[in-house]
């Protein structure tokens, strides 16, 4: 036990955020313990292949002595003659760091890693046949993790852990580069644009790019973090990065791309702040440390408090009545932003 684990990719069609597309399962399977593990990705690129290794070893708290692969591009760079293969240098780096041996199967010999091939089908059928619609990729990943926990109850992983190679800290996978900030307070990375704080316009920033996300640094401090965009010519904008600019030109807010990129925030603006961009920008500045759903929830809560306070001005205080009114309004706000199924 602990000697061998097999790896393979598998495809699965899921509906995420209302769009049906193909996602990829990185699957590991141990023939000895019958333990298997998987993680969901949007592609099968080199960064994903490497990330799947690091996540798997972190999940285990150790490393198998031998990792078995087929002749995928992330493993074999090129064939030399009939039997020799040149291995991918990034995979060799991983193997050197973690101490595992690389075993590549013969061409067209799926039976040499038959355990993982059957487990790819097993994961797809048991995790995503009945449930295949999700609000986000994170939700789909959480569902996969919970399903695997149930499916692995009969495995002998705990026994096998005693035979694994010693745990090592995560291998640093980031791609490092320096980029210039455009006049629109964005950086160009792999044909997409990502926002950074507008005070960095015209300056150089450092990027650490991972499989799913990238982190931006200026003066050795983290200034932005974005999920990677699939495809090209896309934008990912954080409205908190544009507060300085918006304070100078509040009238530009209503039809701005950055507001449109956050549907919940746009809904809040038109419902409560339309015609009052300065007030909205002040709230954004007040909660500049929040983003996305957390920011929307905070602004919605503030509006709730303001509404209840206004409606009860001049009325004798009845704590229980105010509480019921607050709860009813909160239900309405939650329903408006999709946080619960109905208004009651």
Automatic annotation (TrEMBL):
Signal peptide: none annotated. GO terms for biological process: DNA integration. The keyword Aminoacyl-tRNA synthetase does not apply. Keywords: Coiled coil. Belongs to the transposase IS21/IS408/IS1162 family. The keyword Coiled coil applies. It comes from the Bacteria. Residues 134-161 form a coiled coil. GO terms for molecular function: nucleic acid binding. This is Integrase catalytic domain-containing protein. It holds the Pfam family Mu-transpos_C_2. Residues 1-178 form the Integrase catalytic domain. It comes from Suicoccus acidiformans.
């Amino acid at each position: 036990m602990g000697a061998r684990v097999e790896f393979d990719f598998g495809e699965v069609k899921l509906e995420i955020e209302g769009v049906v597309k193909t996602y990829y399962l990185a699957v590991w399977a141990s023939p000895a313990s019958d333990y298997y593990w998987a993680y969901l990705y949007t592609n099968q690129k080199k960064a994903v292949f490497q990330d799947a290794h690091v996540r798997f070893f972190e999940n285990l708290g150790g490393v198998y002595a031998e990792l078995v692969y087929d002749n995928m591009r992330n493993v074999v760079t090129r064939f030399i003659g009939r039997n020799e293969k040149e291995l991918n240098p990034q995979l060799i780096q991983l193997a050197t760091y973690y101490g595992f041996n690389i075993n590549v199967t013969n061409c067209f010999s799926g039976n040499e890693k038959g355990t993982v091939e059957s487990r790819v089908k097993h994961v797809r059928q048991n995790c995503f046949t009945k449930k295949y619609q999700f609000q986000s990729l994170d939700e789909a990943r959480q569902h996969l993790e919970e399903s695997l926990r149930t499916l692995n109850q009969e495995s002998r992983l705990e026994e096998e852990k005693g035979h694994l190679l010693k745990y090592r800290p995560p291998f640093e996978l980031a791609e490092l580069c320096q980029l210039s900030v455009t006049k629109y307070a964005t950086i160009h990375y792999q044909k997409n644009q990502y926002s950074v704080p507008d005070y960095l316009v015209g300056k150089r920033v450092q990027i650490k790019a991972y499989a799913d996300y990238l982190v931006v640094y200026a003066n050795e401090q983290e200034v932005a973090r974005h999920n990677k965009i699939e495809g090209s010519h896309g934008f990912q904008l954080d409205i908190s990065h544009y507060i300085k600019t918006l304070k100078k030109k509040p009238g530009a807010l209503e039809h701005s791309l950055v507001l449109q990129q956050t549907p919940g925030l746009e809904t809040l603006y038109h419902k409560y702040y339309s015609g009052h961009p300065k007030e909205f920008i002040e709230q954004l500045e007040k909660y500049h440390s929040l983003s996305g759903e957390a920011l929307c929830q905070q602004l919605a809560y503030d509006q709730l408090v303001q509404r209840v306070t206004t409606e009860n001005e001049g009325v004798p205080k009845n704590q229980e009545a105010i509480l019921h009114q607050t709860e009813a309004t909160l239900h309405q706000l939650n329903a408006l932003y999709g946080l619960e199924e109905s208004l009651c």
